[in-house]
Amino acid sequence: MHSVTLNNGVPMPVLGFGVYQIPPGQTDKAVADALAAGYRSFDTAAAYGNEEAVGRAIRTSGIPRDDLFITTKLWAQDHPAESNTRRAFDSSLRKLGLAHVDLYLMHQPFRDVHGQWRAMQDIYREGKAKAIGVSNFHTDRLVDLIEHNEVVPAVNQIEMHPFHQRSADQRVMAEHRVQIESWAPLAEGRNGLFTHPILKGVSKAHGKSVAQVVLRWLIQRGAVVIPKSVRAERMAENLDVFDFELTDDQLAQLAALDTGSSLFLNHRDPVVTSRLGSYRVPE
């Protein structure tokens, strides 16, 4: 598997498997099928409710822990965030059945962000998380976190797909050596992604599916991607993106699809802020 090197020297696969919205009862099989297909990087979160199922599938597979890259996420914590973050992290480790995770992300830019990050820095220094980062941070919040703390986030996982391309955000992240990671890389099929004429034309030119073209486009842009599927044949298809490249003309065609707006959640919307900020994840 191709990888990128994070700002602390840790290698991270450029293509992993996401388990968002996969019910716990289906997660064991989905992760097992993904492992069989060749995935070695898995992205879960406390808020997804399926950490235990991910951990079971990993243990059942018999694949050595050192061959895997496991990401989970911290939900927004109240003050005192330091102790709350430690408790939430220990709960995730226990559910996963792991001694450490490879990447621990702050899931949302809400509540006591700096207190959470201080606790995550301690977890990182102890080696219980090989790298730490954030998710859903706009660049102003990201730079604020960087300038007032000691450890620079290794990753910022954000919505990124052909209809919301985040080019300006990516430039700021690159300046600070923060790896961009795309959630919803296929836009969950919104805006007619799988039948879009431009994407269909590029896919036909390469003899690839639209999903493969989009994943390849993101990887060529330097993003880490975590597509999700519960179908084994789609899992295998999504991995098969390293034997072709998009041309400059094709990249320009895809650039024209950018709307500059989220298809899911605007984290600067007060209603979204209130809703996500008040949500409590069951332990």
TrEMBL record:
Designated name of the protein:
2,5-diketo-D-gluconic acid reductase
Q: Which domain of life is it from?
A: Bacteria
Q: Which family does it belong to?
A: Belongs to the aldo/keto reductase family.
Q: Which PROSITE patterns match?
A: ALDOKETO_REDUCTASE_1, ALDOKETO_REDUCTASE_2
The keyword tRNA processing is annotated on this UniProt entry = no
Instruction: Quote the InterPro entries the UniProt record gives.
Output: AKR, Aldo/ket_reductase_CS, NAD(P)_OxRdtase_dom_sf, NADP_OxRdtase_dom
Keywords of the record, alphabetical order, are: NADP, Oxidoreductase
Q: What is the lineage of its organism?
A: Bacteria, Bacillati, Actinomycetota, Actinomycetes, Pseudonocardiales
Give start and end of each NADP-dependent oxidoreductase domain.
21-257
CDD domains from the entry? AKR_AKR5F1 (cd19133)
The answer to whether keyword Protein transport applies is no
Q: What Pfam families has UniProt attached to this entry?
A: Aldo_ket_red (PF00248)
